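It is worth pausing here to work through a concrete case rather than discussing structure prediction in the abstract. The textbook approach is simple: state the sequence, then state the predicted structure, then interpret. We follow exactly that order.
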Amino acid sequence: MQIPYADYLVHLSNILLLISYSVRNILWLRWFAVGAAFIVMPYYLAQPTVLWPPVVWGGVFAAINLYQIALIYRERRPVQLNAEEQALYDMAFRSIRPRDFVSLLMVGEWKDAEPGERLLATGKPADAICIAISGDLEIRKGPTVIGRLQPGETIGLALAFTEEPSSVDAAFLTAGRYVKWPIADLRGLLDKKPDLRAALQRHVNTELAKRVRDAVLR
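Step two, the predicted structure:
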């Protein structure tokens, strides 16, 4: 018994589906699924009575996969950072992916600081997390200077999430430039992006470990 040539399209389509189930790369999986959908369509169209339901549904599935493929390629595009953003990334966020960093920047606010501007005030909770990329910051407890913060160090990290009042003042001694992330906006972003939350948590753990190590060595 001879097999009609159109039947070979069905076999080829199913072979591509089998291959798609065996690959681990999601991009290749979607490409094989799209190929399988388009290859089998002529078979349905070549029937004495065109089988429109599988043609329509195959087109829908192919369109969904093509849309997801476009998203994957967009996410894989090289990230372009300006000079300030690159400086901030190099100082504080090298442990996370550049694209995750861009997502963080989208909810942050760049600020110019005047001498004397305070990022933390004694007795007040922190409503934002800040990181300076330039300028000298001083930490005071009452009249006593207890330390300086270097550009790239996070300010208000623990206080912002515990909502406890600050026991110190953190103020600029000189003009500077910093980024401010309002806590409400940051929480909203992390709720939508669990992968980014995990990446940021690893970054926080790394920074806390560094601060503990520096404190021990002093």
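Step three, interpretation. The mean pLDDT is 86. The radius of gyration is 27 Å.
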